């Protein structure tokens, strides 16, 4: 049993002596992928943890995941020994679309009443990081379109565009699709403030005439890797947010969905062999408005966050 003194360095070996298992207990054996794609079913869980003796993603192998939680899933991969991510597959680890779910669009499917409220869906995410809807309703409206708000992570997502016109010349609707909130910045060592990216909200059409609104994009997932041995990272990890849906033509009245925010990646290692890999945490773009009348674009998702460093720095 290690006895701590003030100023002692927190290392993996000392933590193991106190019962805190940096790198896990190895109960899931060895993860080795050299070709093809191995996909883990997350089962809709908010957190997914694996304890390996070692992790090796080499050759053309790829690690992927399916079935995340609607607010996104935090994936924690613990390794007692070395972690090697040198695969030439692009990406070697796929985390895109594992964050908060994108919201559904809203609006009339045909010409409707001028004083009817049409609702869209906010994006999913942790702590309001999904793009959401703030609204108030009064009176009537002829043409009001609102692009979906982008999802948030390290920064707030971007609010969607808007278009408003009333024959009376006064704006009676007060609606805005706002970008998702920022989450706490990534912290290593003793706290894992690591979150999936929020999803973008769907676009919203509130006017009398039917126009086409589109869904928001899903956020990127969150990954924590604990490497109790040597880290060799030269591959690519993709935790980018998904673009909001939008039109592929210039039709009349197109309203884009918000983009999903990029996710978070934290890799902590005991010793380092190489750290020249690429981590993509870009936010998804908002869906376009096309070139038609009354169209508006969705807001972009926030850029995520990543950090690779020694555990005991």
Written account of the structure:
It is a single chain. This protein is mainly β and 313 residues long. It has one domain (18-310). Helices cover 2% and strands 31% of the residues. The protein is built from one helix and 20 strands. Strands 1, 3, 4, 6, 7, 15, 18 and 20 form an eight-stranded parallel β-sheet that branches. The chain has a three-stranded parallel β-sheet with strand order 8-16-19, with no helix packed on it. The chain is elongated. The two termini are 22 Å apart. The model has no long low-confidence stretch (mean pLDDT 85).
Write the layout of secondary structure elements.
Blueprint (H helix, E strand, L loop, with lengths): L11 H6 L12 E4 L3 E5 L5 E6 L1 E4 L4 E5 L7 E6 L3 E3 L7 E2 L37 E6 L5 E4 L15 E4 L7 E6 L25 E2 L6 E2 L8 E12 L2 E3 L15 E2 L8 E12 L2 E3 L24 E6 L3
Parallel strand pairs: 1-4, 2-5, 3-6, 4-7, 6-15, 7-15, 8-16, 14-17, 15-18, 16-19, 18-20
Antiparallel strand pairs: 9-12, 10-11, 10-13
Fraction of helical residues: under 10%
Provide the residue-averaged pLDDT: 85
Biggest sheet, open or closed, and with what strands and sense? 8 strands, parallel
Give the N-to-C terminal Cα separation. Answer: 22 Å
Low-confidence stretches: none
Count helical runs: 1
């Amino acid at each position: 049993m290690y006895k701590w003194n003030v100023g002692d360095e927190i290392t993996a070996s000392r933590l193991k002596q106190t019962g805190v298992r940096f790198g896990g207990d190895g109960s899931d054996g060895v993860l080795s992928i050299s070709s093809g794609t191995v996909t883990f079913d997350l089962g809709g869980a908010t957190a997914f943890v694996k304890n390996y003796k070692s992790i090796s993603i080499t050759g053309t192998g790829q690690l992927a995941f399916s079935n995340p939680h609607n607010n996104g899933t935090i994936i924690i991969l613990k390794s007692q020994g070395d972690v090697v991510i040198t695969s030439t597959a692009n990406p070697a680890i796929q985390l895109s679309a594992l964050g908060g779910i994108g919201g559904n669009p809203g609006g009339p499917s045909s010409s409707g009443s001028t004083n009817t409220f049409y609702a869209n869906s906010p994006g999913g995410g942790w702590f309001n990081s999904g793009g959401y809807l703030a609204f108030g309703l009064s009176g009537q409206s002829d043409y009001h379109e609102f692009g979906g708000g982008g999802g948030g992570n390290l920064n707030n997502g971007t609010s969607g565009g808007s278009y408003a016109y009333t024959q009376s010349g006064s704006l009676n609707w007060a609606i805005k699709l706002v970008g998702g909130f920022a989450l706490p910045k990534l912290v290593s060592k003793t706290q894992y403030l690591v979150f999936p990216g929020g999803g973008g909200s769907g676009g919203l059409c509130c006017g009398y005439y039917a126009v086409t609104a589109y869904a928001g994009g899903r956020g990127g997932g969150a990954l924590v890797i604990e490497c109790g041995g040597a880290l060799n990272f030269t591959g690519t990890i993709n935790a980018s947010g998904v673009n909001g849906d939008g039109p592929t033509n210039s039709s009349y009245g197109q309203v884009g969905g918000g983009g999903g925010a990029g996710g978070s990646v934290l890799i902590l290692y005991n010793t380092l062999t190489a750290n020249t890999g690429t981590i993509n945490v870009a936010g998804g773009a908002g869906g376009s408005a096309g070139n038609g009348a009354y169209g508006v674009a969705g807001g972009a998702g926030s850029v995520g966050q990543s950090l690779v460093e020694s555990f005991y720095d």
